[in-house]
Design goal:
Helix content: 55-70%
Low-confidence stretches: none
Length: 382
């Protein structure tokens, strides 16, 4: 199979309809959460303030964290909790080393692929029930999430929620986890109705590529469930809302584009390597990256090509310098994680999804240049 797992639309009007639909859906998510989950968010914010654990953030971000916990627990808890012996700390370091030491990335990824299949996701066709979300199981699952390298940002946030949940009585814990499960079930059902037409190839892709990603470092990223696609689609919109206020305060802006948007493959593309990534030199006027770069000259933003798994800490504001706002683009399976990583480095960000997946390294036997919706990019910049 050589088709995209998801597609936001075949043309501009179709993509615009996607963004309209996901915005309306997020309004519905927020409305649906106003009962028990809204109260939980309010209590959590009071807990963080009482113990001075972090600066208050927007409610949409906390809601996304709870929804992420519900979805990831549903998908991965059985594997996470049943993994008792694994080099968790070493694997967590691997994920950071590959970003900071690019020359060793291939070797690190080779080792990660072996470790992920050997320890974190040993091959099995046996369907397992979700693990019970006890505090002990959550502690163990957070180690597993961080070790994957795919869910480090979520794990860091779940640790704070776990500290808050540790203040609750057993009967309160059972009730709040029941609420999270119920909300996750509602989200799964409603997302299938609203977003299902954009992810209709996911399940056939997973069936057709069942063995392709064994022993590969991108196994988790490329075998996400349809539920996770929907989580990240809604998550991108919720994240944009949560981060918008800080982004609008920035005077300098930059657009970060993935390498798969280039018309020419690496080695033929003439982009210049700099500390932050690559700068397009306009070697192909019709290249999607070059078109956005040319638009940036008129609208006063910088354009960078960011290779997969880059060190986003390089975008952290330096002492005495104003923060630079960024609009980052990636495919559905990785965008939210990147957004949270930028937030951790105090980088005000917005995000725009790739219209579909297309890179040769991860998704297709024959890669195709990917693209983003220019209207959505302009709306995020302004």
């Amino acid at each position: 199979m050589d088709s995209s797992t998801y597609s936001l639309g075949e043309n501009s009007s179709g993509v615009n309809e996607y963004y309209r639909s996901v915005s309306v859906f997020c309004d519905e998510i927020i409305e649906q959460s106003k009962g028990e989950l809204g109260l939980l968010v309010k209590e959590f914010k009071a807990f963080l303030s009482l113990y001075n654990l972090e600066k208050p953030r927007e409610d949409e971000e906390y809601l996304l964290e709870l929804l992420s916990f519900g979805v990831l627990w549903r998908v991965y808890s059985s594997a996470a909790v049943s993994t008792r012996i694994a080099p968790f700390i070493t694997m967590a370091y691997f994920a950071e080393w590959r970003k900071k030491h690019r020359r060793y990335k291939s070797a690190i990824d080779f080792a990660r692929g072996i470790f992920i299949t050997l320890f974190l996701l040993p091959w099995s066709d046996k369907k397992r029930k979700q693990a019970e979300p006890t505090l002990e199981n959550i502690d163990h699952a957070c180690k597993w999430f961080e070790a994957t390298g795919e869910f480090r940002e979520q794990a860091l946030r779940f640790v704070l929620w776990r500290a808050f949940w540790g203040m609750k009585e057993d009967n309160e814990l059972k009730e709040l986890f029941r609420s999270i499960r119920a909300f996750t079930s509602w989200f799964e059902s409603r997302a299938n109705e609203v977003l299902g037409s954009y992810t209709k190839n996911v399940e056939s892709f997973l069936t057709d590529t069942k063995n392709r990603y064994l022993w590969r470092e991108d196994r988790i990223s490329c075998t996400r469930t349809r539920l996770e696609y929907h989580l990240n689609m809604a998550g991108a919109e919720l994240m944009n809302r949560a981060f918008k206020r800080e982004f609008e305060k920035t005077e300098r802006k930059a657009v970060l584009l993935p390498g798969c948007m280039r018309l020419l493959p690496e080695g033929e593309c003439e982009a210049e390597r700099v500390k932050e990534g690559l700068i397009c030199k306009g070697c192909k006027p019709e290249c999607n990256v070059n078109r956005i770069r040319e638009m940036g000259k008129k609208q006063n933003y910088e354009t960078y090509i960011i290779p997969h798994a880059s060190d986003l800490s390089l975008w952290s504001p330096k002492e005495g310098e104003p923060a630079r706002g960024v609009v980052a683009s990636a495919c559905v399976t990785t965008l939210v994680e990147g957004g949270w990583e930028l937030k951790r480095y105090n980088v005000p960000a917005q995000c725009v999804l790739l219209n579909s997946s297309g890179c040769k390294k991860h998704w297709r036997q024959e890669g195709i240049p990917t693209k983003i919706d220019i209207r959505e990019l302009k709306s995020r910049l302004n």
